[in-house]
Amino acid sequence: MIDRYDWPGGHEALWRFGPDTGPVVMMLLPPFEEANRTRTFAVRLLRELAARGIASVLPDLPGQGDSLLATEAATLADWRAAVTALVTAIDRPVVGAAIRAGALLDCDADLAGRWHLAPQSGTALVRELGRIAGGIDRSAAMVEIAGNRIATALLDELDTALPCDAHPRRVVRLGTDPKDADLRIDAAPLWRRAEPGDDLALAEQLADDLAAWSRACVGW
Predict the structure, then answer these.
(1) DSSP strand E in 65-139: where?
(2) Distance between CA atoms of 47 and 16, rounded to whole angstroms?
(3) Is the per-residue pLDDT at 197 higher than 80?
(4) Is 39 helix (H, G, I), strand (E, B) or coil?
(5) Which pTM does this prediction carry?
(6) pLDDT of 144-158, one tens digit each?
(7) Within 10 Å of residue 76's Cβ, how many Cβ atoms?
């Protein structure tokens, strides 16, 4: 079901999945081009969660997806304010789930727990954007990278942003990623593909883990 939610700067689209009782998983996608590459898979994962009796929401954030706010007008503070407003509006326990740099966005929210898939630091995100662009002129007010017009002030914010490590937190990584993880799954990362993709087997594995983690976080 497609809905919307309010935040201090306006309102944004929201997808809802699953039952009307129990905990709610809030899925946060990485910003910019990786959101396009991971959205189809994220929807698959949330539908698999619904099949396991776990509800979820997938919000558009300011300046992302179908937001009416221009991408270059978005700030990290806006994203975090939108996430916090959404969590506050949900009258059920919320477990945060995030893919890659989506893990930078839930730091101010009151969550029952966090589940991060391959969490990425803001510095790593900005470095990757620079590689895609072949360099970034940080003296300009705005740069265009892979079709996204991004304010350099946002890049400055992201440079110092880190995934929230407040507990309870569970980190899942894929393939040969050597960083610390609570669970490692032998699968190819979808965000590395040239085109958006899906992976049913991976979605089922992650849904099993995320459903169990969500129930553990809220004692349900």
Answers:
(1) 94-99, 113-117
(2) 10
(3) no
(4) helix
(5) 0.94
(6) 998 899 999 999 999
(7) 20
